Amino acid sequence: MKKIFVIAMGVVKELFRRKDFYFILLLIFAIILYAGSFSFGGERGFYRYFKEIVLSMIYIFSVVIAVSFASRQIPMEIESKSIYSLLSHPIGRGEFIVGKFAGVGIISILSFTSFYIVFIISLLVRKDYSTPWLLLLEGYYLQILLLFFISSFAILLSLFLTPAPNIVVSLLFYFGSNWFGVSIPGYIYFPHLELFDLKERVIHAQSIVPGWVILFLTIYAICWTIFFLYLSWLVFRRRNL
């Protein structure tokens, strides 16, 4: 566990060294201020419009950060040849994969939590209490599961693709699942990322999701995440570096 923790912390440090996170956080602030300057369709209509813009940006940016970090972890280590020094220590390739995934997972939690806190504060400032707080928590929790889910997928792809095409494919997977999934032949056999998106429920202040559904989605996400990580380990352990 200590080895996995060390690898994960190395990934997390990368978040604070890069300017992407700070830029996106400032951009979200700007979007909130911009969206907040409009007022139309009555108070109820405005609140829905405001939440739709801000939540959409938060969900998309959190996925972009998770995918961009996950896609470059292994290729970056191989390109810089630092992977040889890592694996020369008594670190298994499975530990290496899990450590990288854990680091990306922590980054995903930190970034999305920061964005979501900004969103919650914006609701409090505007005194918008229409959405049940439990639903807001469910939306937060399911998005974290989705970020783990898609990060493990991007890590698997990183063993076959360079970062740029990996990011494109992973984002197509995300947007395709949410927007065009049901129209794709045989989609029933693919991962259903749209199940984790509670954005519409939050925007329209609908009822909370039953506990058994949350439990099912938790198991569903864990199974797919483990599956992608297991495939990553199978491919990586057979690769000559």
Q: What Rg is obtained from the alpha carbons, in whole angstroms?
A: 19 Å
Globally, the shape reads: globular
N→C terminal distance:
24 Å
Provide the residue-averaged pLDDT. 82
Q: Report the uncertain regions.
A: none
- Secondary structure class reads mainly alpha
**What is the overall number of helices?**
9
Q: What is the succession of H and E elements? A: HHHHHHHHH
Largest sheet: none
- How many distinct beta strands? 0
Strand portion, in percent? under 5%
Number of domains: 1
Instruction: Classify the helix fraction into a percent range.
Output: over 70%
GO molecular function: ABC-type transporter activity
Transmembrane segments: 21-41, 53-71, 101-125, 140-161, 168-190, 210-236
Keywords: Membrane, Transmembrane, Transmembrane helix
Pfam family, one: ABC2_membrane_2
Describe the structure.
This protein has one domain. Helix content is 77%, strand content 0%. It is built from nine helices and no strands. It has helices at residues 2-17, 20-36, 42-79, 82-88, 93-125, 133-157, 163-179, 199-203, 211-237. Helix 2 (20-36) runs parallel beside helix 5 (93-125) and helix 5 runs antiparallel to helix 9 (211-237). It starts with a helix and ends with a helix.
